[in-house]
Amino acid sequence: MSITVENLSYVYLPDTPMQKQALFDVSVHIDDKEFVGIIGHTGSGKSTLIQHFNGLVKPTSGRVLVDGVDLTQKGVNLRAIRRKVGMVFQYPEHQLFGETVFEDVAFGPKNSGVPDAALEDRVREGLAMVDLDLDVLRERSPFELSGGQKRRVAIAGVLAMKPAILILDEPTAGLDPRGRDEILSQVQSLYQAWDLTVILVTHSMEDIARMAKRLIVMDHGRIALDGTPQDVFSNADKLRSMGLGVPQVTTLIHELHRRGLVQRRDIFTLDEAESEITRVLELKRHGNA
Amino acid sequence: MADALIEFRNVNHIYGKGTQQEWDALIDVSVSIRPGEFVAVLGHNGSGKSTLAKHANALLLPSSGCVLVDGMDTRDEETVWDIRQRVGMVFQNPDNQLVATTVEEDVAFGPENLGVPSPEIRRRVDEALLAVDMLEYRLHSPHQLSGGQKQRVAIAGMIAMRPKCIVLDEPTAMLDPVGRQEVMQTVRRLNEEENITVLHITHYMDEAIFADRILVMESGRIALEGTPAQVFSQVDTLYKLQLDVPQMTALAHRLNKRGFSLPADTLTVDELVNQLCQ
Lengths: 289, 278
What we know:
heterodimer, A: 6-stranded mixed sheet, 4-stranded antiparallel sheet, 42% helix, B: alpha/beta, Rossmann fold, 6-stranded mixed sheet, 37% helix, 22% strand
């Protein structure tokens, strides 16, 4: 399922002293089954942008089309759109409310008309995708789980809706390294298993470099860069001027390139750096021998 | 140890004692924090690191053992306010810590409660805001600030109490990279220039690189302790403890497995560049 944004502008609190334009004439197309990373520092407009993708926010001007349906048209069925576009907000565990894990995860599908008989399977599957077992957790209160588990239950609630597009706004914020790795590898396997379109908003350049095939960089309400991780991270100076970093590995490779040790500059994961540095060091060793 | 600012002596802490959820969060922890030291505490969720931090200013009291702050026992109710004036805490969520309608009123809140005279409060507030580089925002409303700025105001609020030690419990977890950098620069400057003792709890390995000493918590005990170079060079042990190592340490470790001989205590990009280009 695809998303198309045409000349989107958004102004918060128009005609008040607090008026602030968050998006300026943004146009972008996200294709079916793409895995896109959105980066940008706080206030760059990235959260405002994704909130347009399921009609939570209405454009001040411009259009948003989800699967060809124009969300700005009168009479559009936003409930149907929100079933297809699953949104995991920052700190989603703050939105847990059910007395039991089952009740909490079942809430979305139940309200969207999934029959009771099918509910059990939906909940089981949603939980399984985040490595939680319904049989263990069914009657547990979500509030007595650990921080990482709470977050996964909250994500399961979105997955139980069986969305075609999954949008995650900083899903790893505040988690420990293990929790970060778990959530990210679950997103990766979901992407593959369910043929989803995934849009991941994050501050972690290392994570996004590893996972996404396309990066969109927001700055001051506009799209500043859009391309493969290679394209985007080759603009290290531009990223730094926008208050963003590049993966540490890229900083290392650029410095090694400047010193003449490596020829490539388009490296941003540990795996690639390991093999490229090994290659040049071995060549050097042979050359000296 | 006579010269310790904070001393944990055989500290045990049990949550929910006598209930089904009874849980030993700290088990026989003994460690001393020296004046002027910058100590980072690492450990995965549930390892006990926040519980340890909350013992440093009597927010939590030991189930057994004791904690001494500047020689005062945290179990002594008489001295709890003296202890909290000496050891201030900053928490994770920047939105839960600011109470007043302007930045300067917020910073003045602590010293006012201590009964500091007005002219002195004025001086302390200005000094504290200068120390965190937020003086120009003194008349702003806290809710207009970015996350990093809010955390710096929270730190200023403690500085105005003239503490000897600040305890930061994942202060950067909810911040973006710019905010994280602002907060870490501020904390390092306070430590280096004002000689304020820092106990910094974090999940970010790159924030621990600058510490004088690192404590790694696991299942309520201190599993590793040493300088960043000593701790991070134990890559496989840290992975077993479900922690990361700094990216450059990880890369050096991988290259060594492929037969190169880089120092195991490589921490930064500059170090690795220099070693590779030798």
